[in-house]
Amino acid sequence: MSETTTSPPIVIEIELADPELAERLVSLLAGVAGLRLAAPGEAADVAIVSRPQREASEAADTELTPRELDVLALLAEGASNKAIARQLGISVHTAKFHVGSILDKLDATGRTDAVAHAARRGVINL
Considering its fold, how many domains does the chain have in total? Predict the structure, then answer.
């Protein structure tokens, strides 16, 4: 006589902002053996949660222009505003403006912090 043991089902919680997508996902998962959807307030083994998407304006604020990327590369080398200006053929004032813009877009506290943020985000490779 063989004894069959059944594992408890995996409990899944679904939390999506789009109700249509949530309903489609619920209907797809409802028929899968070994899965059970969590009741409201019940602890789940797995959660499917949608993250709110950033607004286009927010995403655009963090994108660096090609010139800012040039300035950032020089910042990573430790260049001063004067050296950046000389290297790129721009005024020191314009170099300072670009550095300030980079700091704002990367939410950095200083030049070194901007380079660190950019490296973590994969904007530059060190």
Answer: 2
- Note whether 36 and 68 are same-domain residues: no
Collapse the DSSP code of 28 into the 3-class scheme (helix H, G, I; strand E, B; otherwise coil) and give the result: helix
Q: Does residue 70 belong to any structural domain of this protein?
A: yes
Same domain, 70 and 107: yes
User: Using one digit for the tens of pLDDT, what is the confidence trace for 44-97?
Assistant: 888 877 765 545 444 444 689 999 999 999 999 999 999 999 999 999 999 999
**Element containing residue 31 per DSSP (H, E):** none
pTM of the model: 0.53
Cβ(75)–Cβ(69) under 8 Å? Answer: no
Q: Which domain holds residue 115?
A: 57-120
In order, the DSSP letters of 47-112 are: EEEPPPPPPHHHHHHHPPPHHHHHHHHHHHTT--HHHHHHHHT--HHHHHHHHHHHHHHTT-SSHH
Q: How far apart are CA 96 and CA 74, in angstroms?
A: 13
